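Review form for a predicted model. The reviewer records the input and the model, then writes brief findings.
Reviewer: anonymous (R2)
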Amino acid sequence: MYKEIQKELEIKSSKERARVSQSFFKTGKGQYGEGDIFIGVTVPEQRKIAKKYALASLKDIELLLKSTIHEHRLTALIILINQFRKAKEVQKKEIFDFYMQNKKEVNSWDLVDLSAPSILGVYLLDKDKDILYELTQSSDLWEKRIAIVATLAFIRKNKFEDTLKISEIFLTEKQDLMHKAVGWMLREVGKKEERVLENFLKKHYKGMPRTMLRYAIEKFPQEKRKHYLQKPFKA
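Model under review:
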């Protein structure tokens, strides 16, 4: 099935879309996506192919995840998410373990943002969260992003504690992609419970990276945004 999925993705590929994606995902030397290869398949097309091969084995999915081609990895994760949603608890545990064993292949912001809440976050909703705190200590950018973005699943259930704790850990993070991810999660908290976000900001806004702060307060009224942005901030 692995070869069939590859073939169908190749049929739907576009050199022009690939060129645009290579630029958009910063694949040049020294950039965060250095070395990633795109063949130019749209996400809707990938979803269609994933649906067609919904019963792909974990071995087939693993082979796709090991590919240097971005769309192979993304399609693999779409299949995995679809399987996870339909699985019983025993199978969910198997998929969770598989995801953690292959997390090194979840190595771009779109791959993280698609899969971390839908698999890791949902699985951990009623379980120990220690694995997320272990990921915050990783030297790998994408593993750290997985740690914070996975908490979107908690936010959707009005559980904010881990999002706030992990956000505090990342206040001194240097990577702009992490500033955006943390700010995004804080914004989602604010959309659910603005008071919770404001309490966090009152404690931390002076030390927050500018991008993180901007993302966090994006949904605030203009005057309130100005109030926070006029204050001293960390460069």
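Findings: The mean pLDDT is 95.
Further findings: Residues 170 and 197 are 16 Å apart (CA to CA).
Recommendation: see findings above.
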